[in-house]
Design goal:
This protein has 288 residues and is α/β, with parallel strands linked by helices. Helix content is 46%, strand content 11%. The N terminus is likely disordered.
Length: 288
């Protein structure tokens, strides 16, 4: 710019007098005009992390992931850079649709053993389960029945069906019995609502045969199983709401992938920033 001005016969000093700026200010801006953005590498890392976590992480979670990578950056700066980059979670906040399997008293209703005490320092001591419903492309629906360990929030087994049959809950329960037999150190309690599946003789008998305590929420009281409701809300917010309806098979595949990601990669603040599997592994290694 300076050379162009000189060729036209103007001196920089004369121009500075006309426009009323100090010469030092001019040289400062020329120097910084070609200066590389000091946050280029950090911005690239933030963008990569945002994509790696499927655009489901906001600035607080991204900040924690940066700290795991030895980048100790203030969360306010991460917030500012993500705004500059246009990185923002766009998933809809919407109430999770609850499948109601209650058909009256068809079996024995048991007491609420958890009484909303959802925390435990012991793996496989307290498990919760429930059923939720998804709408698919066309007239099809998908029903999901996960079993969650309150110790670390891990989904230890789950069933998926087109219809809410008894197999939807029995197959994950049978899988869970094997896990309990090989890994549990204390007697297990499994908590559910009063849906007909959980009053069924097959469900009750399998629990008794394996000496598992059964627990049930009070009728129409979602707060009695808040941990399970919370998982359904997170799952639907992060991979279902705001997306176009897809076929049953495609949605089934996405749920399988999401639950694996949720267990192995999705960090939880209450687990010291670790995923459920990382926390379980870390705890077992520390105990050993």
């Amino acid at each position: 710019m300076a050379f162009a001005l000189k060729e036209e016969g103007f001196r920089l000093k004369d121009i500075f007098l006309v426009v009323g700026i100090p010469e030092a200010t001019y040289h400062y801006h020329v120097k910084n005009f070609v200066k590389e953005d000091p946050d280029t590498e950090l911005k690239e890392l933030i963008t990569n992390l945002f994509k790696e976590f499927h655009e489901r992480y906001g600035y607080k979670r991204i900040t924690k992931e940066l700290k795991k990578l030895e980048h100790h950056v203030n969360h306010k700066k991460v917030y500012r850079l993500m705004r500059e980059l246009g990185l923002k979670c766009v998933k809809f906040m919407r109430k999770s649709r609850k499948y109601n399997s209650y058909k009256g008293k068809i079996g024995k209703v048991v007491k609420n053993r958890l009484s909303r005490r959802f925390n435990t320092p012991i793996s496989l001591q307290k498990l919760v389960t429930d059923i939720t419903e998804f709408k698919c492309l066309g007239e099809e629906k998908l029903y999901l029945n996960p079993i969650l360990d309150l110790y670390n929030g891990e989904i230890i087994a789950f069933g998926i069906r087109k219809r809410p049959t008894l197999d939807l809950v029995m197959e994950p329960l049978e899988e869970t019995m094997g896990i309990i037999k090989n890994n549990a150190t204390h007697r297990t309690t499994i908590h559910s609502d009063q849906g007909w599946h959980y009053q069924h003789n097959s469900w009750v008998r399998l629990l008794k045969e394996n000496k598992i305590f059964q627990s049930m929420s009070r009728k129409a009281t979602c707060a009695d199983n808040a941990s399970m409701e919370n998982f359904f809300g997170i799952l639907k917010q992060e991979m279902y709401y705001g997306e176009e309806l897809i076929s049953y098979e495609e949605l089934k595949s996405r749920i399988h992938k999401y639950i694996h990601w949720y267990n192995h990669d999705r960090s939880k603040e209450r687990l010291a920033g670790m995923s459920p599997v990382e926390y379980r592994t870390h705890s077992s290694q520390s105990a050993a």
